[in-house]
Amino acid sequence: MTATPLSVDGDRLWADILSTARIGAYGETGMNRLALSASDGEVRGWFEAECRALGCTVEVDAIGNMFAILPGTEPGLAAIAVGSHLDTQPAGGRFDGILGVLAGVEILRVLHASGERLRHPFTVINWTNEEGSRFSPAMMGSGVFCGVHDIETIYARADKEGVTVGEALEAIGYRGPHAPGHLPMAAYLELHIEQGPVLEADGSAVGVLSGVQGLRWLDVRIRGTEAHAGAFPMNLREDALVSAAKVVLATQAVALNHPPGVATVGYIHAGPNSRNVVPGEVRLEIDMRHPEEEGLAAMETKLTAEIGRLVPGAEVSVVWRKAPVAFDAALRGAIRQEAEGLSLSAIDMVSGAGHDAAHVAGKVPTAMIFIPSREGLSHNEREYSSPQQCADGANLLLRSVLRADQLS
What we know:
Layout: H1 10-20, E1 25-26, E2 30-31, H2 38-53, E3 57-60, E4 66-70, E5 79-84, H3 98-114, E6 122-126, H4 140-145, H5 151-155, H6 165-172, E7 185-193, H7 198-202, E8 206-212, E9 214-223, E10 227-228, H8 240-256, E11 262-271, E12 277-278, E13 281-290, H9 293-310, E14 315-322, E15 325-326, H10 329-341, E16 346-351, H11 356-360, E17 366-371, H12 387-407
Parallel strand pairs: 5-6, 5-7, 7-17, 8-16
Antiparallel strand pairs: 1-2, 3-4, 4-6, 8-15, 8-17, 9-13, 9-14, 10-12, 11-13
């Protein structure tokens, strides 16, 4: 490597963030680029073209994960990889996911301009359907890659319009030929916005992640009796929405009694959803998270019991379990040292949100870097990290990649 430290071009990175945000733009600064939609296909095409122009081969696996690979100088070594995702929430922001992919593209540009190469192949990954907003579950592509999900089962998952994952992959042309898990990796690093208020409140430039919280997704179905809203007396009603309100409050109480756990009722559908009909059925979707498996299990047990007590007959099913994840100690130490070398104040953190890195950590030494989110906002069109914060994160990612190349 050159004696002059390599550095990203922050202005170029920011320009990429703004230009790619036009693909699937929503409102003034929001994004609606759902997984495997036409806009997802468009931004994938941009990513592929940019990486090929920088000397990469681009491989696509059977679930649509994309791997832009720049050869290393020593044949036979596994890849040093970075990545994240290009899909967004229905009303998401410009930084969630795509920052990690664009920072990888910027590192490719730095290596291309300098003529430098890593010992290992350097790979930038776009994981399919991290968000899980169109197709469940979230972190789908990395889950298939790591053997967490069966691909045929995933192909059959359908969105609310009945379109399956397999059909959507074919429609945008990204059902690739490579088997999931085909790429050997020596290390995986992911840069991401925090999506919370901790870094901003602390005044720290970056977070070094020790791991990711575990999570549970619960579905609840409550049945009552539909009735005329004017003619049916209050004391005789079986109002499913009133029962659902008890579940919402119980969910909040369980989280408050199991700190630092969190729980959210993020989806409610009341049927028949008419102003003058007493609701006869309500479906709820609950998200629970905790950094420790013991705490998460206690939350699940307590909430399930509370729902049974408050709403006898309610149907409760756990649709997804994800254990807490610990990241690689050697990579975390390297990131901290590189942050110090860049004069970036750093704190240790646990991620409250799920990330593709949580799946990858089960197979490959993995670490994550956070940069601040203004007001802690994400999954929101007001989501924002400054040009300097994005550049700081990308520079730390670059330096960490160079260190990982020597560690492995």
